[in-house]
Each structure stands twice: as structure tokens, then as C-alpha cells.
Queue: 2 jobs
Job 1
Amino acid sequence: MNTKSFMKRSTASLSVMALVATMGIAAPAFAQEAPQAAENEDSGAIVVTARKREEDLLKTPVTLSVLTSQELEKRAVVSVADLAANTPGFSINNNASGRADRSFQQIILRGFTPSGVLSTTTSMFIDGVAVASPSMLNSVGTPERVEVLKGPQSAYFGRNTFAGAINIVNKTPGDEWSGAVTAMVGTRKNYRLRAEIEGPIVGDMLTFRLTGDRWAKDGSWKNAYDGGTLGDQQSTSGSLLIVAKPTDRLKIKAFGFYAEDKDGVAANTRLNAQDVTTAANYLDSTGTLILKGQSNCTLTGDVDGLKGGATISLPYFCGVTPGLVNPVSSNTLKDSFITNYLASPRGRILSPSQGTQDYGLFRKSYHLHTTLDYELSDALSVSLLAGYNNEHWSQFSDLDGYDTTALPNPFGGPGSRSYFDFPFLVEREQLDHSFEGRVNYEFGPLSGVVGASLLDAKVRSDLGGGNGALGISSFPTASGFDRAKTFGAFFGTTFEATDALSLSIEGRYQIDTLYAYVGPAGLTLTDSTYLPAGTYAADSLLTKRTYKNFLPRAIVNYQINPDLMVYASAAKGVNPGSFSTGIINQSATVQQAAKAAGITLSVDPEKVTNFEMGVKGRALDGKATFTFAGYYAKWRDQINQILVIVANPTPLNPNNQTFVSGNANSGSVDLYGIEGDVSLRVNDLIKLAASGAINLSDIKRFSGRAISQLTGVFDFSGKEQPLASKYSATAMVEFGGDIRGVEDGTWFARTDWNYKSGVWSNQANVVRTPDRHVVNFRAGIGKGNTSLELFVTNVFNNKNYTSIADNFTFTPTFGRTAYNSALLVGLPELRTAGIQAKVKF
């Protein structure tokens, strides 16, 4: 049997279902294909492109979940955070940068938690073309489906697919005019207006699809500082897809979008370990209480974070994080100090007109790609892809994160406020382009693909702020470009040994060349700890490294019967190395402290070896579908971010601390788990689906000086990965059918339950967030091309935190920044109700 051919459904035996049940995970599930079991009316198949060719999801020997356009709509998925909430084993970390917003968002699959703010272990693609960041999901107007591939995907998708890949697949426009207009309004000023139209330009030879989308909401949390809201978000996007089919054998697609995000202050807050008062040391109870401390334990830390050093007792948090006792607040006053600071171009990579004009995030994204598919013969076809991304954003935040107007600023003067405050600007620009060419072939029992690809990406940033003289003595500092060029030659060959047994060998030879450039201000080094002392010209090459790796994957799959397939695979993946160039701008004392802590200027690639086994199929005459997988992964040479806090006293501030972070290959982790999906179309009225994942981790080796300083833990063996849920699940019940007596009348009502277990704040596993259960409800009626829906999200108003990170309590003299003294937590969207109308034409 050719595994690329779709086979008609037939009844699987009940013994198969019994076998699945004995795996102990019948309630959890993995792929979300159930409600679209009839996506292809003839075969009941959902088509995926996990191996660079179209295959039936249930006959593809790769672990992946799929959300089709119908499910994306019914689950109201408009962002990567929504996608993660609806996909077990998938988490989003959006507060690694000291705030919980959409600027730095990290995808975490199966517990492969990136080590630093700019690190990634999973990449996103549109139609197989790389895109710049996860935020671009909501810029693709009503995609046909979203594929979440888990496990190393390096053989086909290349760079930064160490833990997996996410591929957004566009809808192909038809040759008849059609379209839709969708309008939604809800509580807290939620609204969405989306329009889409498609049709012929020149018959079926040239067609197009045009979309426009505007979505916005007020945040769920009141800002105690000024009564405004925290967590406001707004996104505007437009996309155009043009498809040309000059001949039956040639298809050309051109796709592009423009997106603009404009968000307010993030919905996050700090849980402070100790009281903050107006006393001289900001701690004694003799002063007025500003923030109530919430510590529930005392940790025995180490003064230097080095084993054998002097111990210190530090109040902190243990177990499950406590609830909020302090008002959620953030300084958001836009006075002349802030206005002048944001209007200044000094030290910035973006012009003031491109940057944010207030507290919050302002981002613009552009994406273009073209694909060409040409059938040379029935056995050979050629595909060419080219893509371009341009994304830049500017984010301005109140880094201290509370109302500090009662605390005097000891460093006041011209250009600074009279009270303590710590406004902070971060900006980033990313440019990349990619090319890929491949040949697909099929010769008898042999089929597969061979090709080559190139990705060239550049990124630079600036940051700065504080409680000093903004725009007078305090300015942002722009970094130089970091550049990564990745060339890969790849292949995949499947051999149909018998009608039931297939063997696949895949691989990629990859060359990663990383470059770091001097910033626009140039650089003078007086210390040779990391690089030779001397003067380095602006924009000159600072350092360069090249890494070469071969990344294989082998798969064996066996089609037991037309409705049941089992598979096993072994794969290797590589995440490219990186640089710690930020440390060379520091003083000799700080550089030497960083080196003593293990920070290296360049780090080698991290590697993973992954083993999987899975089963996929249908049962009960095609009414039930199921997919299950188990995996074991060995993550070696793990790149970890190391934070070093060095005393750097000044005449004005004897408690001044310098924070410096860098990377090192300082970790080793084993990850293993099971993932599964069960779905059932009970009858024409009832549909059921459930998905779940158990993602376990076992740290073998890790070093983190700041964590050891706080906790006194130096042996992390046996601990679990932070920021990733061990248990996650979804469940859905949907009722629906025709409305009796109404021509073309339909109705539905569904409830979705999403569950994520709590996540640790760090590798010492001292404190974690509570488990999170979210129930969403949606119901609607339709007649012909018109539909009306009512929805309620977070029905039970779950307020548990969405993210967590070790952080600091900021006071005017920075007396509590020598060690972690607070937790930064992300606040969830609270109950939202609304109504949505859609008209198709």
C-alpha cells in the first residue's frame, strides 16, 4: 500500500479501542481533528504537509496536532497564546523579559523551555516558509489549518525546530466569487471585524483571496494607579494571496500580509517577598506600608552562588504561589519627562516616529512569500519557495511595576521625576529572508524529496531607561547586529517494503554561521577577559562561528489494516549556538565575575536525540478517531542563560548592582511523555473530543548562579524543567443539527475545557503557579449563509496566573536586587461574553 494514498474508511475492531484504552490515556487526546472527520468527504481525511508533501493525518508517521479553520473559529483562536491553550503539551512563556506582554513570546513544546529571552526551540512557518515570530499567527486571515509538529523537525524544517515546528497553511482561493464578513462585540470593549473575499481574476487560471481583520479588547485588570485597564490589546492586519495556474502542471502562489499591534501596559504584577514601606530603608514597619510582603518561607541561599560560600537567609516563596494581596498597579503617567524621552532618537535603532508614543507595545510586521510547484512528470515535481520578513517593535514599560509616587527619588534633578520610578524602553528589529528548492519523486516503491535551503536572519535591539535624568544623562543603548546564516541540504526517502510496511530515512546537512557586530557607537575594550583589548569600529565584525551538523531521522510504520497504523522513529536535532556579546560592554570587574560564573563568549549548539512510538487510526465505522504517541528525548549540551549580579557601588548609590547575563552549555535533561487524542461522532447530534499530554522531565545537570544564590541548591539532578506544564488536557462536547421546520437552518452548542498544570519558576522547583482550568461556552444558529453566535470565555472566571518568573522588588536604593526578591506573574483574561454575526456571500 502506498502511504500517500488515502484509503476509504472501514470498520476497525472493538479490540483496537480496547487496546487504546489500556494505554491509560483514553480521556486525554492529542490531535484536534475530530470535529473535521469529514474534511475530505470521500476519505474522511485531514491533509497535512508535515513531510513536505500532502498526506492523510492518520497515515502520517509524525506526531502532530491539527486545528482546522472550523475549529480555529469555534475555539476563537486569534493568537499563539490561544493556540497553546487549546493544544496539550504546548505552553507560551511571555514574561521572560520582566513583563508579560506580546513582545517576547517563547513557544515551549514538550517541556523544551528556551533558556533566555531571545532563545527559541520551536519555529513558525506559513505554507512552509519561515516567519519572524509567533505573533504572526493572527496575521493570517482565516487559515485552512494550523499544524503543530512535535519532536525534532530539523530534517525538513531546519533551523530552530529543535523541539518542533508550527506550520500555518493558507486557504487556496476558488474560481467562484465568495466571501464573508464577521463582526463580534463583547464585554470590556471586545470587538472584531473581519472581511474576506476571494474569486477569479482570469477564470481558474488566476485567483485571489483578500482578508482584513481588526481585533481589540480592554484588559481585564484595573490599574490602581489611575483607574485604567491593564492588558489592553489591539491588532490590525490585512493579507493577500494570489494563485496562478497557467497550466495543469504549474501552480504559483504569492502571499503577503501587513500587521500592526498596539497594546497597552501588560497585565502582570509582582508578588513581593518583603514589605515595602516609606521608611529610610524601605523595610521597617515605622514607615507607611506601600506593598505587603507575601513570603511564606525562608530559603538558605549562598552569597555568591558558588558552592561552599557564605550562606544567607532569604525570604521567598515555596509551594504554590499565593493569591494577590496588593493592588495591581503600574505608573503610566505620560508627563513631559516621558514625552521628551520617547521623542529623542539618541541611542535608538528606530526613529521616534516608528516607536511607541506611550506606555505599552507598538509593533509592525511585514511578510511576503512566493511558492512555485511544477509537475515535471507523474513521478517528478519541483517546488521553489522564497520568503521575506520585516518586524520591528517598541515597548515602554514601568519596570518597577507598582505605584511608587510615595517614594522620593534620591537621584532626582533636572530630567527626572521627584519620586522614584523606573520607566524602561526596549526596541527590536528583525529582518530575514529565506529560499528553498526541492524535488519530490515517486518511482515504484520509492518516494520522497531532496532539496536545499538558505535562511539569512539579522536582529538588533536597544534598551534603556531608569530613574535618572531621562533624555539628559539616561539614554537607550543600541546593540550591533546579530546575524545567522543557515544553509541546509536535505532529503527524505520512503521505501514501501510491502503493502503494509514502510521505511523512511530522512536527513539534513546543516551549516550555521553566526556573526556578531559592533554597535553604532563603536567599542573600546580595556580588558581582555573575553576579547583582546583595543578599539573596535562601529558596525565592524566582532566575532564569528561556524557549526556543521548532520540531522537524521528514521521512521518505520506498519499499516495493520486500512484503519490502524503504528509507527516508530528516531531523530536528532540541533539548536544553533549563540553569543554572549552583551558582557563585553561591561567593566573588567563585571567581565571577570561573569567568566567566573561560567559565561562564555560563544556557546556550542545544543543537541537532542529523540525516540517515538505511536498509533493512529479509526474505529466504529469511522465514527471514532484516535492518535497516541510516546516519546523519550535526551537534551544534551543545553544552552542555559546565566544571570550574574555584581556589586557596582557609586558615590550616590552604595547599593548599586550591575546585572549581566550570558550563556553557557551548562545543562543536560531527559524528557519523556505520552500524548493522545480520542474523538467520537456519537451521532448526527453529538460530537465528543478529548486530548491530553503528560510531559515529564528529569534534569541531569544544570548550573544557574542566581538560582543557587537564592535557593542554595547546587545539585539540580532529578528536578523538573521550569515554565512548562507537566499535565495538560482539553475536552469538548458539542451538540448540533438541523432546526426542524426551518429550511437550511442549523444550530450548535459546545463547551470546551482547557487544563494546564502549574509551572515551576526555575530549575530548583521551589515555587510554582496553581493549576489552571478554563471553561469556554459557545452556541449559535444559522440559516443559509447567515449565522449568529453567543459566547462566554473563562465561564468560571479562573484567576490563576498564566506565567511566572523570578524577579526583584525595586526600591529607590535598589537594596533588594542583589538576590531574587519577588515573582513576576502574568494575569489571565477574566470572564468575557459576547455575540458574533457572520454573513457569507
Job 2
Amino acid sequence: MTYLAWRTLRYRKLAFIATFVAVFFGVALIVACGGLMETGIRLAVPPQRLAAADVVVSGKQTYGVPKKDPQDTKDIKSVPLAERYWIDPGLVSRIQEVPGVERAVAEASFAATVVRDGAPVIVGTQSLGHGWDSAQLGPYRLDGQPPTQSGQVVLDRAVARLAGAKVGDRVDVVAGGVTSSFQVSGIATPPGEVDQTALFFSGDDERRLNPHTGSADAIGVVAKPGTDLDALRGRIERTLADRKLVVLTGDDRGTAEFPEAVGGQAQLIPLSGVFAGMTVFVAIFVVASTLGLSVQQRQKEIALLRSIGATPRQIRKMVRREALVVAVGAAILGVVPGVVLGPLLYHIVGEAGVISPVVEFHQGFLPYLIGPVVGIFAALMAANVAGRRPAKTRPTAGIAEAALQRKWVSWPRVVFAILFFGGGFALLLVTAIAMRGAVASATAGPAVMCWAIAIALISPGLTRLLAAILSVPARAFFGLAGYLGTINVRVRAVRVASAVTPIMLAVGLALANFYLQTTQNEAAERYYSDNLRADVVLSSTTGGFPAETVETLRSAPGVQAVSAYVTSAGWINKPYDGSHVESPWPLQGVNGASAADITGVRTTAGNLADLTGATVALPEVAGKNLSVGVGDQITLRLGDRSAVDLRVVALYPAKEGFETIMLPAELLAAHSTTGLARQILVTAAPGTDRDALAASVRQKLAGQPGTLIEDHDAITTFAERTKTLAWVNYLLVALVAGYTMISVANTLIVATAGRRRELGMQRLIGATRQQALQMLGVEAGMITIIGVILGTIASVVTLLPFSAVVLGRPVPSGSIFIYIAVVAGAAALTFAATLLPGRRAMFSRPAEAAVAVD
């Protein structure tokens, strides 16, 4: 059988080239996904500002949420914190006493920005101020003098160059929302490239400007020469004995500088896992479709082999070995584009904001090992499916079936079709009944897979049924070509289904995922920002606004209401709340005095004006589930891990699944990373238009640099995360859909090229080239329509319950042009893959083609 497998590959190159291409691209995508997942698991963040510290002690940037029992400290879900968790700088003295420690230095940071001509001067992602003592953890090389007294600052070289500042010059610095003048006492050169602007102040200024004074971001530890760092880390961990602290070495040290990288890990790992799973799923179907078509074209040969003594086991072995020979070469070569595709995908994901760009991309040997293994596994699985029926068919029946190709039903196909249809219906019901809000996508995603698999399993029968329906208009409009085309599609339903299935997969997956995302985006924007009113939105590019800014704006002409606006995330600890284990509650901070006008929320109990001090306003559903009302007390775990006791002052209605908890802006800002409100919302008094209001606000804040004056769309809401992930999902779905469309082209090219004899016979009995091409065009049109109809069905049964839950209507959100683009792409590829090889097949003379080997 090995000899026959090699001979088959030699004489049927086109069919196996198609399989090669499918495995090749599948392996490339899996290798790229493996790189993304490995990057997320490793989370290597090389230190920059703390590069000279051998060990770094930092706060743990995750919080363990009890899953069921609040007393169970083992059954917990680790979720990233929304804000930085600060640590006690007093730990320096304890760490200093640990054997092997040469010195320990506390590192604190706060928003501080140089401004020139009223514009912020920032190199990198943000500008931060630090105490000069922490500069030794760089280490920074200083030109000039350190800031030994108040009013002095050391600039890093990049920002000094951009600001045109030299030693001895004076520069304006915004810190804590207030602009002050400082003398440049020195210019510091970092040890390498840094992603943040660094300004260094004297100890007195650092304590005065830092809103979180008395706390530290991290503690850098310099080890004595010859000290074993792993042993030192263990000694420090035992000395501190605090589970809320982490002791970092190597590339883990950078997470102390960039805590936002920890949050990206929670997004990157599942994202790459889902994409890899979708790729494997599509790869198996794609290769099975291509191999299945190849085997169908050789049914007569296989039947002849059976008639001369070949056993079913030998036939299956031959098909497997054919697939294995092709898959091994394709899998090995598919690793090559994975080398480039992995970093490219990571760059796009980083640019979209899913993970911090400071995280180092890693693609070790495992993705290069797993990718080919999965590709070969997919090919063997497909070979088992493709070779099962021909191997079991009796020789005489096989020869007859090779001519007619009508049989396709088997008990495994029926059983699995029932199971997947059942799974699809079950997920539909779960989505419609049990799911609420954005989490409905957790069941909607697997649902489209179930529907697609179920439809693919019965696609020959559906193809025959739809072909019979379409035959009437096709014959009416296209005459003889329509008659021949419809006859071919109906008689060749099993082979045609091999082309219909990948089209259905591409259309179904693309439509479902695109419209799931657009629907979720609209819901997030609607329900997270509908309760906020603002004619003008002020955004700070220098770290935030001081509390006095709100009071200043209240007296501006044309202002009706003004409020600071802060966003974060947290958990309700007491009474125990199990509704937000996987992800924290969205928190919104507003000023109580203006809350009713700014939010537009009409409370069902209590008053938002009482939202001052240690108070909170809860959604009705939270109050009901926790059995708390106005006047009761809850304990809220904020984004920086702080637990605060709050009195409930109001309950208000909110869309289920998109609820937010409201707190006083001052309270929430105090527990944010910057310690300040980054936005201020302003509404216009009756009779004042937006332009007049913006001019009035601009005049009031003329002395506040780095302030952007924008409209309502600039409000930062929890929909921003959804938008970020949306573009990444669009990219990933486009890649998978594109890969599936390659399969469409493979299948159709192989199928059309294998019909040389049929096309030659038609021309011998009088058909012209034009008539033959018209017939192929009718077939391509019917294949496209059938594939689009089945793909649309697979997506619609997924989208209807999801949209009903999320938007309250069965029609999903999104442009009709998405549907048109997907259908147009499928049609263009189908026609090209059918007509181009068909035209080439007719270059030979009819008599030669009529006796050619299919």
C-alpha cells in the first residue's frame, strides 16, 4: 500500500497539492497562536528603570476572588487588579537585614509631566516622577547635580532633548494637576531604551507631589557579589511571609514597573487559545473536505483494488499514508511562515492594547513542535473520515457508486449530526434563558461551531435539496447551461458538498463572529454611556485634574452641571457576591452634587445627591441579590485591593449584564493609580450650545496645560476594552476565514480540473467552449448560494438569541455591508476557482480530454 500511495501522489499531484496547502497554512497559524500563548504564559517583562536591582519586591497585581465559599481560600479565581497595589516602604529595613542583601531602595512613582508652550513633553507611554534615591536602581548616568533641595528636577535625556532644556534652565512641570516651575539640576541618561519618561525630584518634593505619599510601587534589592539570587529570593519571601507581595527576579522584574502587563496576560492566553482551537477545527474540516474529494474521484480505482483482493484495512492504510506523506512535508514547511506570522500577530495585538508592548514576545520550541503535530493529526483524522466509506463499500457497489455518487448517509454521520444539533439547540436555550449581558458570548461562540459541524455532516442531503429548489430559476434564466449545471449539482451532490462545506464554514464563522462583536460593541456603548450626560468632556494628558478644577468650572458661564469622572473595577466582599467572580464590577466615580444631572439616572430608592464620603449607589439587581437596601452597609474591594466599608445611599435600574456601581469621584480617585480624576464631564445650561460652552470652559482653564476639550464620545467607559478586543477578533476571524477560503479554492480547483473527461465528452457531442463555461458558471453560482444559505443559517441561529439577550431585539447590530462583503468574497473566489481551471481544462482537444484520466 505504501507503493500505491507514492504512485497515487505522483499521478494526482493537484489533489495532494491542495491538501498540502491546507496543512501548510494550518500549521503556520497554529505555530503563531502557540507563540502568542507562550508569551502570555511566560509574561516576560525585562526591567528598564529597575535594571540594576537583582531582586524586586512588589505588590501582587492579582486578587483571589472566592468562587463559592467566601471562607474558602483555596477555591479562588485569580483576577488582575485594575489599579496598582502599593506596598509599605517600611519593608526596606526588614529586607536590608536579609543575608546577601547589599542595599534595598524603595521606588515610588506619580504622574509628572514637563510642559513646553502649554503642550506636554512625553517620550514613551507616560511621564512619571520619582525620588532621586531610586535612580540608582537604573542605574542612570547623571550629567550635572542631583536634586538636593526643593524646586530642583533631573530630566531624562530624551525629554530634555525634546523640551530643549539644559542644566540650569527652568521648566514647567505638571504634577498632581498643578503646574510648578523647577530648575533643571541635572540630566540623567538611562542604561538603555525606556518606555516611560522619568523625572527625578528631591525627597521633599517627591513626598509633596505624590498623591500616594507614604507608599511605594516596589522595592529594588541589590545583592552582594557572589550571592545566589534564587536563594536570596527565597530568604526574602520567608522574611516577608506576605501572600500579597511577590518577589521577582529575571524578566519578571519588569511587571513591578508595568503592572498593566499582568492584566494583558488574562486576555492574551484565552484569546490565543480560542483562535488556535478555531484553527484546528477549521483545519480538520478543510483537509477532510479536500481529501474526501480526492477519494471520491478515485472511487472506481478503489473499487477495482477491492475486486482484486485489497482489504478494507489496506485501503484505509493507503489513504492514511497518502495523507501522512503530504502532511509531514507541509507541516515541516508550515513552521517557516509561523516564524514571521507569530511576531506579526503579537505586534498587532500589542498595538490594539490587548497586552502592554513592553511584554517580550516568546516563541520557543514548543509551538514549533505542537504546530506540526497538530497539522499531521488533523490530516490523519481527515484521512480516517475520507477513507472509511470507500474501504467498506463492496467492489461492485463501489464501481456503481463511483459513477453516481449518491450514497452518503452512515450511522456515525447521523449520530454525530444529532449530537451536534442537540448541542446547538442546548447552547441556544442557555444563551436565551440563562445568559445576561456581555457574558452571553461565552455560549454564542461555541454555538456557531456546533451548528456549523452539524450542518457540515448533513451537507450532501441539504445540497441536493437546495439544488432541487434552485434548479427551477436556474433553468428559467440560463436555458441549456442552467439545465446542465443543475443536473450536475444534483447528481454530484456528494462531491459538490465538499465545496459547499468550506464555503458554509467561512461564511458562518465570519458572519457569526463579526456580528457578535458589532452587537456586543453597540450594547457596551449604549448601556455603559447612556447613563452619562456630557456636552463637553475634559480629558487630561498630564495625569489628571485636581479637585479644585471642578469647583472652578461650576462658575463658568453656560455650565449647568460639572462632575469629576473616574473609572475603575472592584468586588463586593460583604455580603458575599458570587456574580462577579470571573471579572470585577465596573466602578464609576462621580460628584454627588451633580450626579443626578450628569448621569441622568432616576433612582428607585435613595438619592444620588447623597453620594459623598464613604457611600455607594448600587444597581437594583445587586441590591436584590445581596438583600441590601438604602442605609445598609457593604464592603467593597477597590481596584488597588483596598477594602472600604460603604453605606448604600441609592438603588437605580440598569441593563442586566451591563450594571455599574457608582461611588464618589474623590473616593475612587484616591484609590486609582494616578490618584486623580482623568476626566471631567460638563453639561450645558438651557439655551447654551456646545460651542459656546466649550469656549467658556476653555477660557476658565486657560492656565491648565494638557487639557483636551472633546464631545460626549470621548467619555472613557468599560466599552473601550470591548472595542480594543473587537479589532483583534476581527483580525483573527479574518485570518481563519481567509484560511477557509483557501480551502474553497483548493477544493473547487481540484474538482473542476478532475472533470476533463466530462468536459471533453460534452464538446465531442456538440457543446461549445462558451456553453461549457456557462454550465460551470451556473454550478459555481449554485455552490455559492447553497454555501451562503447554509452559512447564514449557522450564524443566524447563533445571533438571534445572543442579540435578543444583549440588545433586547432579535436583530443583531452591524452594517449590512459586512454581510455583502462576506458573500461577495465567497462568490468571487468560488467563480474564480471554478472558471479558471475549467477554461484551462478545455485548452486540450476534445478527443484527448474525453479519454483522459480523471
